[in-house]
Amino acid sequence: MRRGPLQRQTEAVARRDQQQPYRFDQLGWLQFERLCLELLAVSSGIGIGEWRRSDRVCSLVIGEGITMPGEARLLMGPTLVAVVWIRPTDSSAIAASERLRDPLEQALAEWSVQKPHTLLVLTNVAAAEVSLSDIEVTALGPVELSALVAGLWRVRLHVPTVLGIGAAEDLVVAAAADESTADLRAARALAPVFVPTRAYAAAVHVLAQHRFVVLTGPPEMGKTAIARTIGLAALTDGWEVHECIRPDELWARFRRERRQVFIADDAFGSTEYRPEAAERWSLDLDRVLRALDDNHWLIWTSRPAPFRAGLRRVHREHGVERFPQPAQVQVDAVDLDVTEKALILFRHAKAASLPADAVELVKAEGWAIVAHPHFTPERIRRFVAVRLLELSAELGREAEIEAAVAAEIREPTEAMAVSLRALSDQHRTLLVALLDTPPGPVVERELAAACRRHSRAGLTQQPAELVDRLTDHFLRLSNGKAVTWVHPSWRDLVIEQLREDQPQRERFLHNSSLEGLLLALSTAGGAEGERLLPLMCGDGDWDAVAERLADLIPTLDEPDLNRLFIALGEAHTATTGSNRRELEHLACSALAAVARRWSRGHSPIPLGSLETWFALADVLGNPPPAPEVAATWIELGPTAPIDVGGQEEVVRFDDWTALCELLNEHTADALARFGFPNEQRNLIDAFVAAAEAAAADPLALPRTRRELLASSLWRLSRLCATDPVRAADIATRLVAGGERPELPQTYPHRPLSPELLQLIDATTVESRSNEALVARILDDL
pLDDT tens, 484-511? Predict the structure, then answer.
């Protein structure tokens, strides 16, 4: 066997650094094949021809020869390329070499007509010299493959399986990790069990094209896992990774000079649809999309509705030319095929280091598990981590084991509920208190405050001590600093138990912060989005929420008022009958209380809050009187011609036109009392003239200011306060002027070869059934 420069160099590096090769033995034949095909495609351009697969080898002949992966040396053609995964044993290296001989000779026999001159072998064993007659053999074993993986980020991104066999531990850039704010501990924990599904491959493809992807689908299907795995792969190339619940968190961490991946979730750790969170991203989506480039990516896990609403807003206000259509960036993670399910089960079982009897149980029941209609990645994680060892220890009759396995996958909450009921009162109080905290990981200070609100007799232990007892089973620590749920399904279970306990439920509502009340009024929660008003079960609950809101409204800041109004409007739309009548009364009381608060303050009302006030009032049958807006009009109304060169003046004028449009839509009498537009005619005409002068040389103004001028012109046109044809012409020239072309893609996506797509989509030896394929995958445990 010939030892090339790559082999000699990587062996020297491994000896010098005492670096162990990546653990390719843990992959099994199928994942190893996928990795090797991607390595060959990226490093040597192999993407043509027809791969032949048997039980022991995947092979292909390249007539003109190929460039050695990782080297400039050309292997003389025809070259037979063979991928051989050898199941680990206690055999020596020489025995491994002997085990390579049979599949290689089989491949040579299958390709004998092509008369290969050289043989390139990719294998998971560190084989000694392999001598085959009349052919030059070059082998890439674990050391060489590790070096190739370490040098090719595209391989780690497309086949993140390698992150769980040592690549993440070895290659994550420490400086980038230190700057990142994502839950890297959770991402690293995913690496040994993550399977790159078709949804993952599609997400990577969309990111390469648009730098923005939206992952949709039901809970437990791996949306957040896909996002975090892409982030972990990016960390190995020096990208920062940030998880952002709100757009302002993205902007606080955004650095133009750095490579950054942002992961946004409507509500990390929750299955509730939080309309106020979705609305925040929807409102800021235009600005976010403009900021993305080849070095700044955004992954958004969202329900489809808020994402589509956000893009509709962008298209309506800015056109469709520079922004993607929903179908271009949306990836649905709802479906898993048989191969993907089998690999998910394989990776969880492999990572768990199961005893022999548990491994045999997985192999025996593998097809029943994979074929089960309720299979999800999260249920398999819980099954392997919790119940599998118990079932394997029972070793009852085969039919009983099969029934128990099916029950665990179908109804995993049964065992969860038992463990929850077994907790002490203080531990349950802490879990209930966690429902009354903001979405996402919660710092100890906020959790302690929630515990004080909801503990009747006080806690005899510090919250940190209680969390320690619950960690790993119910809760987990995010980067060692903040507390969150192990999975949203645990949160769902606590909600369900709280719902069934009337005294505790009413106490919770009486003592909640706004977060707990928003949960009580939430819609589209639960695993299937079916849960509606989860804690509003009777008159006592409505009374408790009304009383608590009356206490809270005087203390809420404007963003929280917006969240309350949006949640009430969403709930009103989703309900019928007596619940809608209760919501009408509650919403009217809240609107009236806020209007009184604003009137007593005699200060300007933030436009965002005023807009959500009117939006909620519009859906009610008998809303309260509109709030007094004179102070807001005085604050924003222009008193002198606008200097379009001044950012502050342009922003204030834009806010004033927004106020005019808002009043015109919801309380036209108030706008008429201010004499609009006649009393402001001279100022409006002067503004239009100044904007027209600016449109003659648009590059003299920053883009953001030109967009503000254009939005003011459009509003004045809709309000019939200026000539609409002239306003449209000026606005179009302002926005179109100086438009920069799309940034070039420095990382163009390389389409997968038809052969690799076939391997990913079908991945089956022809004539084998799905059941046989599952058995073969699990046989490598």
Answer: 887 777 888 899 999 999 999 999 999 9
Give one word for 140, left, alpha or beta, with left for phi > 0 and alpha for psi -120 to 50: beta
Q: 170 near 150, Cβ under 8 Å?
A: yes
Alpha helices, DSSP H only, in 697-779? 703-718, 724-736, 754-761, 770-778
Res 620 pLDDT > 60: yes
Q: Do residues 409 and 369 lie in contact, with contact meaning Cβ atoms separated by under 8 Å?
A: yes
Cα separation, 311 vs 45, whole angstroms: 38
d(CA 241, CA 262): 6
**Residue range(s) in the chain whose domain bears CATH number 3.40.50:** 154-332
Judge whether 40 and 149 are in contact, CB under 8 Å. no
Q: Where are the beta strands (DSSP E) in 205-329?
A: 212-216, 240-244, 260-265, 296-301
Residue 341 CA to residue 770 CA, distance in Å, equals 11
Joined tokens for residue 72? 């400039």
Phi, psi dihedral angles at 300 (to 5 degrees): -115, 120
- The whole model's pTM is what? 0.67
Q: Are strands 240-244 and 260-265 parallel, antiparallel or unpaired?
A: parallel
Please spell the DSSP secondary structure of 346-404, one letter per residue. HHHHHHTT--HHHHHHHHHHHHHHHT-TT--HHHHHHIIIIIHHHHHHH---HHHHHHH
Coil vs helix vs strand at 723: coil
Instruction: Determine whether domain 154-332 maps to CATH 3.40.50.
Output: yes
* DSSP type of residue 525: B
What residue has token string 């809303």? 623
